[in-house]
Amino acid sequence: MLADLALVGFGNVGRRFATLLAERGARLRDDEDLTCRIVGISTRRHGAAWDAAGIDAPAAARAVEQGGSLGEGGGADATAALIAGLARSTADLRVVIETTTLDIRAGQPAIDHVRLALSSGCHAVTANKGPAAFAYEELSRAASASNLAFLFEGAVMDGIPIFNLVRETMPAIDVLGFRGVVNATTNHILSALEDGEAFAPALARMQAEGIAEADPSLDVDGWDAAAKTAALANVLMRAGITPHDVRRTGIGEASAAAAVRARAEGRRLRLVASAGRLPDGSIDAVVAPIALAADDLLAGLRGQANALVLSTDLLGQVAICQLEGSLTQTAYALVSDLVTIARQHRARRAAPPRRTP
Ligand code: HSE
């Protein structure tokens, strides 16, 4: 099976995806009968490239990392032309890989990129939290109406399978709520603060590693966690909320005293994201620093570790942990979404036509 891919955005995540795809190309061919070809890339600041025969994407990644450009153009016009070009491909699968950065006001332009992909007959995969956090219902309806996929495994806990876990392995189960630590930057900072370190260098380390958002106030003010909370609530609980509906308290320099005090009391200060249903059926979603009892699973998460505990009706509490995060893990989420699309395509081809009653 041949998949032609168009990359919208070519920042840290997009470039690592390009190299990871090259590293795992043989494995995908052998295990999944899936050959992926990157035919186009569009960026806001580094130009755009198109080659229907396939781009040497790792070389393009190196060029951008050395300050070079992919070619003429870029921006919204290049993205529209890229998706139109992909739509003309005769490959088995046409997939837009969207990795632009999070816009917390309204989730744009990522939502428009996904909309355009789907309305052009292409599958849409994104690592951006915006589409699921702001427009999950609309986009998932549009995708299923056209037998296309809208997937976003990398939006929460990188490549750790949260959405896949529920979709693939928990049929007929209701997720009643969840609580977790879903932002690596703030968890690293809080761990450093409780060890007596200062806020600024701890944040600087996360920026240097490319873990913090391009605008790190999105991490420390709790917006990144709120976007993940909205995405989780929308997908797992059909909440229909946005990050702006999440009651949100971030962390700051003043958290140092609270983190040290919590530790002295045998507790741990963690930025906890949670959601549950109120008696009237509405969703209550919260992001806030909480001094957790030491035996709380979330209290044991140090550094960049994340975890999510799902409350379910049939399995009780189910927890999944990510002990370390990296760009590779986020890039892997995109690869795993591609494999999901390929498997769905194969299953659809193999399925006998539905009998009409
Ligand atoms: N800035 C995010 C974090 C990156 O610190 O968790 C992963 O979404």
List keywords for this structure.
357 residues; alpha/beta; six-stranded mixed β-sheet; 13 helices; globular; binds L-homoserine
Helicity level, as a percent range? Answer: 40-55%
Q: Strand order of the main beta sheet, please?
A: 3-2-1-4-5-6
Mean pLDDT across every amino acid position: 96
State the separation between the terminal residues, measured CA to CA. 33 Å
For the biggest sheet, the summary is:
6 strands, mixed
Principal-axes shape call: globular
What radius of gyration results from the CA coordinates? 21 Å
Strand residue content: 15-25%
Order of helices and strands: EHHEEHHEHEHEHEHHHHEHEEEEH
Structural class: alpha/beta
Q: Point out poorly predicted stretches.
A: none
Helix run count: 13
Report the strand count: 12
Bound molecules: L-homoserine
Helix and strand topology:
Blueprint: E1 2-8, H1 12-23, H2 25-32, E2 35-42, E3 48-50, H3 57-65, H4 75-87, E4 93-98, H5 110-119, E5 123-126, H6 130-145, E6 150-151, H7 163-169, E7 175-181, H8 184-194, H9 199-208, H10 217-220, H11 223-237, E8 247-248, H12 255-264, E9 267-277, E10 283-293, E11 306-312, E12 316-322, H13 327-350
Parallel strand pairs: 1-2, 1-4, 4-5, 5-6, 8-10
Antiparallel strand pairs: 2-3, 7-9, 7-11, 9-10, 11-12
Helix pairs in contact: 1-3, 1-13, 5-6, 6-11, 8-9, 8-12
This protein binds L-homoserine.
Question: If you had to describe this structure to a student in words, what would you say it looks like?
Answer:
This protein has 357 residues and is of the alpha/beta class. Helices cover 42% and strands 21% of the residues. It has helices at residues 12-23, 25-32, 57-65, 75-87, 110-119, 130-145, 163-169, 184-194, 199-208, 217-220, 223-237, 255-264, 327-350, and strands spanning 2-8, 35-42, 48-50, 93-98, 123-126, 150-151, 175-181, 247-248, 267-277, 283-293, 306-312, 316-322. The strands form two sheets. It has a six-stranded mixed β-sheet with strand order 3-2-1-4-5-6, sandwiched between helices. The chain has a six-stranded mixed β-sheet with strand order 8-10-9-7-11-12. Strand 2 and strand 3 (48-50) form a beta hairpin. The two termini are 33 Å apart.
